[in-house]
Amino acid sequence: MTVTRNQQEIDKLLDQMIQTAEKDIDKAFAKRLKDILAQIAEMYRKYSEGGELTITALNKFNRYQKEMALISEQMTEHYKYLLQSMQELMEKTYLENYLRSAFLYEFESQQLMNYSIPSAQLLKTAIRNPIPKLTLPKLMETHRNEIVRRIGIEITQGLLAGEDYSRMARRIENTVNFSRNKARNVAVTEGGRVQTVSRLDSADQASKYADLEKAWNSTLDSHTRSSHRSLDGQKADDEGYFHIRGLKTKGPHLFGVASEDINCRCAVIFLVNGKFPEVRRARNYEDPKYQQKIADRMDRLLADGFTEKQAEKLATKEISPPSMKVPWMSYEAWLDNRFLL
To answer: In this protein, which residues make up the domain named Phage head morphogenesis (predicted)?
Structure first.
């Protein structure tokens, strides 16, 4: 069971999901690198002449084209896997954040907010990047074509320079690692974008039942952009925008500007009825009517000569807070109860 008591804990869970995805990306690229190096080692073994592999020898009988065709085919399958994995990450990120945020909003406001689980079509639309060239399929296609092109260039340049297998292997390893890092950046950036979108969507539903106020929450460390550091704690304007350096955005990862969006680790958080939502086991001590009854009783006790401490103790003993309209339960129990999973 995953405990969810506030928005920061949700963000930690989502960050862990992205970190797991990054590790999977590393494993996938490590396997692909191993396969490519094995292929190149076999090229050196089969086509070397006089102990040296030349571009002329490799070009005989369309050998180079055949080897590159195999690399291209393998990279196509590799990026299909990455695309599927990242789409699954986006979908899971959206659902986890949307529903866990709903869980918090209902508890804090003590109102049922008529949430429903997003349909498959709605989910697909919600996670799709609105910028056509930045959609996951387009990004993966571009990255796949780039790494194939770069590998071809490295093989050609290495052979023209008369390099042996070990130097060629270093060239290929650097190229694959460069592409691996780009794939990791995509996972972090797109994961963060969907994290923001899902929380905005969840808050949009909650705002029909409670007063919500949006704030920017930065990850404050040495890697934080100075612009985002200054945004920390900033409240959104009346139209829901944050402002910095002449730019405006509905939340982190939504500037539409690479220098502000890529690898951003900030999050958007919401106040519900003036407070950051948190799940509590206790009775509803925050209920306004209960607070007023306590205040009135304390006034009478103070008038009778009791000290403030004595009056508070007696008043809280005499007057019980109301039960919460949404009784305490774990997120998993709430999910089962609300949606009969």
So the answer is: 151-269
Radius of gyration (C-alpha) of the chain in whole angstroms? 28
pLDDT given for residue 340 in this prediction:
65
Report how far residue 29's alpha carbon sits from residue 147's, in angstroms, rounded to the nearest whole number: 12
- Side-chain half-sphere exposure of 204, counting CA atoms within 13 A: 11
- Contact at 8 Å (CB) between 3 and 332? no
- Report DSSP state, residue 6: S
Helix (H) or strand (E) holding 125: helix 120-127
* Per-residue CA distances from 250 to 147, 183, 210, 225 (Å): 34, 25, 20, 18
* Cβ within 8 Å of residue 32, ≥6 positions away: 74, 75, 78, 176
pLDDT tens digit sequence for 147-168? 999 999 999 999 999 999 999 9
In angstroms, what CA-CA distances link 288 with 35, 66, 271, 301, 325?
A: 66, 76, 17, 20, 14
DSSP for 236-291, written as a single string: P-TTS-EEETTEEESSTT-SS-HHHHTT---EEEEEETTB-----SS--TT-HHHH
Q: Which two tokens stand for residue 85?
A: 């994995």
Interstrand relation of 242-244 and 247-249 (parallel, antiparallel or unpaired): antiparallel
Is the separation of the CB atoms in 29 and 180 below 8 Å?
yes
Burial class (CB in 10 A: 0-12, 13-18, 19+), 39: middle
pLDDT single digits (tens) 194-244: 999 999 999 999 999 999 999 999 877 767 888 898 888 899 999 999 999
Asked if the model's pLDDT at residue 341 lies above 60, the reply is: no
Q: What's the rounded Cα separation, in Å, for the pair 81 and 101?
A: 30
Nearest to 101 by CA among 19, 206, 17: 206
Closest of 68, 69, 97, 92 to residue 4, by C-alpha: 97
Q: In the chain, where are the structural domains located?
A: 7-208, 288-339
Q: How much is the pTM?
A: 0.83
Q: Output DSSP code: residue 213.
A: E
